[in-house]
Specification:
single chain, two-stranded antiparallel ribbon, mainly alpha
Length: about 140
């Protein structure tokens, strides 16, 4: 999304006829810092978490999805500029939506994502510019 925005191109909305609240796919977007905190908590509590079972699968997510159209609206809100979009067909194999049930993360890690979607977009934009500065021309 950031790349096409900076290139002045249209962002493809792949699939706009899903049985979702606005027809676009749903995904569970989590800020990278929230994910990092969850991983640190998992390492800190590793012995207790694996005491009864040798491994545990712990989903990380918001527990609610964001549609692609909602993501575009949040991006436009953060940047203050419209994002050109183009509707296209569904990608083969894509599901209408996916988001995590993070109940076990709350129970075992005392974790929930704290940063809103817009903060993730702002931080991603900041990193995009910082990365370009580091890489040079």
């Amino acid at each position: 999304m950031i790349d096409v925005h900076h290139a002045g191109e249209a962002f493809p909305l792949t699939g706009t006829d899903y049985p979702t609240r606005d027809g676009s796919g749903i995904r569970d977007y989590v800020h990278v810092w929230d994910l990092a905190i969850a991983h640190v908590k998992a390492v800190e509590r590793f012995a207790a978490i694996t005491r009864e079972e040798p491994y545990r699968v712990i989903n990380l997510g918001t527990g609610r999805g964001t549609t692609v159209r909602e993501l575009v609206a949040a991006f436009e809100n953060v940047t203050g500029t419209p994002l050109a979009t183009i509707e296209s067909d569904r990608r083969p194999g894509d599901s209408a939506g996916a988001y995590a049930c993070a109940d076990l993360a709350r129970e075992l890690l005392d974790w929930r994502p704290e940063r809103p979607l817009e903060e993730g977009i702002r931080d991603s934009l900041r990193w995009y510019h910082e990365r370009d500065t580091r890489l040079g021309p």
